[in-house]
Every structure is written in structure tokens, then in C-alpha cells.
Amino acid sequence: MLTEEKKEIQEQRTKGYFIQAAKEILKGEGIRLISVRNIADRAGYSYATLYNYFKDLKDLIFLCVKDFQDECEITIKEETETRARGKEKIEGITQGYLKYFIQYPGIFDLFFLERMSEIGSKQKTSELIYTFFDRLCQEEWDFCVSKGIFQADEAESRKVELKLMVTGLLLFYNNRRQPANFEDFMNIAKNQLAFILR
Description:
By secondary structure, the chain is an all-alpha fold.
């Protein structure tokens, strides 16, 4: 007989296998190929077992979105830890964010192209995705305002402009390969960043 503690550890482990399997499918093949059966097969369990741990597929996808955001945030923090606060840090965060979604086109599709009704019945999935870039940069925007680099309303305006620029660049590059190569893409991003943060 399993003790309560061992049972809980086993349940968390099994739940983790399903989350990991779903994340691998989303990263590699994208949301179009995600299904309860595909996830269960990859996790090594029957599809019926998945419902012991998740209400439905949308519940599992929500947890994947959170994990992807955590992963992206950790990567960005590591890449920008030596950057100066304020504008320079915002540049680094933006570049790291762009690289992450170029590296994982399946995650890009999930975050930017899928209808929210397909991936989450809850408003919180949509809100989590919509506010992600803002949350990554917020401390640095606040720092800029506190140091008088930007006025509060000016920072808000630039923040929106930056978010729209980043989304547009990713959409054109990931879906149309415009510009034609990654180097040109990053050069455009750097020039636009310099313009927005001038």
C-alpha cells in the first residue's frame, strides 16, 4: 500500500510526464498534431489515464503555456543578467523574446496564431499570453520612469509600440520568411528597438 506522500509524489510524476509529452509535441510538431492520444502515447500511458490528472486538453495546454513562459523567462534572465538597467535591459529582453519564438515555431503558433477558444476556454489563458511580453519588461519600464528617462505616459506609449513591433516582426518572419534570413531579421529588430527607445 502506498503512503499518502508516495502516492502524491507518484501522481505529480505522472502528471509531469503528460505535461512534458504535450510540450514536446507543441515544440516539435505544433498544436495541429496535439491530441489526448498523441500525448498519452508519448507519455507512455493510456489516453484515459490523462483524464485522472487534467480536466481536459485545454487544462493541460494552459499548464504548457505557463511552462513555456517560465522557460522563456529563465533564458532571458540568463542572457540579460549583465545588461544595464533600463533601455539596455529592455533591448536584451526583447532580443531574447524574439529568439525564443524563432527557435520554437510550434510555441509561436500556440501563442500568436491559435484561436483562444481552441486552446483555452478560460480567459486566463488568453490574458497570460497577451500580457507575457509586458510582464517581462515591466520592471525596466518602471525603472526608466523612476529615473526620468521617460515620462509615465511616454513609457506606456513606447511599451505598446514595442509590443506591436515585436508581434509584427515575428508574424512576418515565422509565417512568410520576411526578411529572408535571421541576421536581417535581428538587424531590423535592433534598428526598430533603437528607434522606439530613442
